[in-house]
Amino acid sequence: MQNLTARYNYIYNANLALTNHQSDLLENYQDNYDQLLPVYIGPEVDNSQLATSLNIKAMDEIIKKAQMIIQEKNFSNYIDESYILLGKANFYNGDYYTASEYLDYAAKAYKSNNDSYVESLNWKARSLMQTNRISAANLVLDSLESVLPQLKSAKALAEPFATMAQMSIYQNNDAAAISYLSDAIKASNVKQNKIRWTYILAQLYEKQNDKAKAIENYRRVEHSNAPFEMYFNARLNQIRLKSGDQGVQNQQSQLLALLKDDKNLDYNDQIYFQIAELYTSEDKYLEAEENYRRSVQVSSNNAFQKGLSYLRIADLNFKSLKNYLKAKSYYDSAVTTLPKNYPGYNLVLKKSNNLQYLTDRYETITLQDTLQYIAKLPENERLPTIQTYLNPVIDKSTIVNAQEVNYNYQPLSNQGTTQQSSFYFSNTSAISLGFSDFKKKWGNRRLETNWRQSIRSSSQATNQDVASVVSVPTTAGDTAVATIVNKDALAQQYFNSLPITASLTTISNQKIINAYYEIASFYLQELNDAREAEQVY
Predict the structure, then answer these.
(1) Residue 111 class from Cβ within 10 Å (0-12 exposed, 13-18 middle, 19+ buried)?
(2) Interval 454-466: pLDDT, tens
(3) Which residues of the chain have pLDDT under 50?
(4) Greatest CA separation found in the chain?
(5) Quick one: which of 177, 219, 133, 213 has its CA closest to 38?
(6) Given 143, 172, 189, which residue is the final one in a domain?
(7) Is 34 contained in some domain?
């Protein structure tokens, strides 16, 4: 009778509460479909939103029931299950060390019971993994795997295989993860687990560049009873992976068709992002930026996607469009939007904090390249060429002191996208640095004859023109005062800097070499980005 009471009053209710808690975790957990999904959902102790949405008290109730069996029913046949329940409940409460102790005791005390032994080792391994004790967890999993063939119930294999798959993912052993996950899917009788694991299996195949198997498993998810977000991403990923077979135009048509479906309204940010990725793959950077910006504009509840779009725009402007001031703003936005556990977050943060260092050197390269280009023109074309490129910029009053630019503006105002060029005078941010240097040397000068003279005659002062001072709207709608300096003087300054002799060209080339070297060293030493440094070298 005592065993019957333990089984049906305490054990049954505790297991029911635990199952409900696990279901709540799965339902409330916000998956990030831009990354490999976790095989199972553990407690997110750093996620306050998730913690408050779940009934954490249920775990305390399970602990209470299990302790009652252990303390009051010493002759019960369910002491082993009680210790396992204590381990699981402490695991979901985030107390992994206590969980490990209970589960370790259960594994040692009830080793002769294969079911209890396997379950204890499985959850002990998960507890160790949560605290990054990977070596210890591996030893536990080795013991666990050795006894799996002795289990009589096939469905009891599913969770251990899932744990071993997660461990393989931690260790970047995708081949082993695929094998374990495939076994877990075959063994499981829990429909939602099978669907989730199939999606992860597709992601793993995609990582291994096995498009056929990735598409096959994404298709299985699409035709299953998957949650809508998972269904949508499975469909989206199939379209993306089929691009090589169907062509970019066909892929774009399918993505645009998804935008027309009202059911996909909450996921339009992801659709625009994929369209932008298509344009990026074809080096159509302006169209790509436009769609990345649309992705941000329509994003309502996916902060990660918004941050990723910010990052793409920043990279485009920095690496391809050479608009460094704009890149700085978007890097800032990416840093404040992306979660800190985003892979490469620290690299993005360093770029945001140190962009001026890189900007100065890239500007040096661009300027020297441009000056060398103009120096090769016929002598009578050099100064007019410089003036031609300076005139539109100055006349439109778009140049401001670079140090007065508000770097914290919100990049997503309704600003137009203009073509950028590696030619120095086509880059307004580069020209603004030229104005900044001009002002450092000459100060704010009026548009007048003999403007270089600091002391002028009274007649000169009387006949001078008044300098044009305008308010230039920034992207955020604020204004910054820009002083329009003598464009002819600035053009002459650039003209005098032209490397028109062999020795001057050598000096110019050395400036470019030094800038590249400093950029590569910065990537390698400060950003720890060897791949980017190698490309620069």
Answers:
(1) middle
(2) 333 333 333 333 2
(3) 1, 45-46, 48-50, 52-53, 394-420, 432-433, 435-436, 438-484
(4) 116
(5) 177
(6) 189
(7) yes
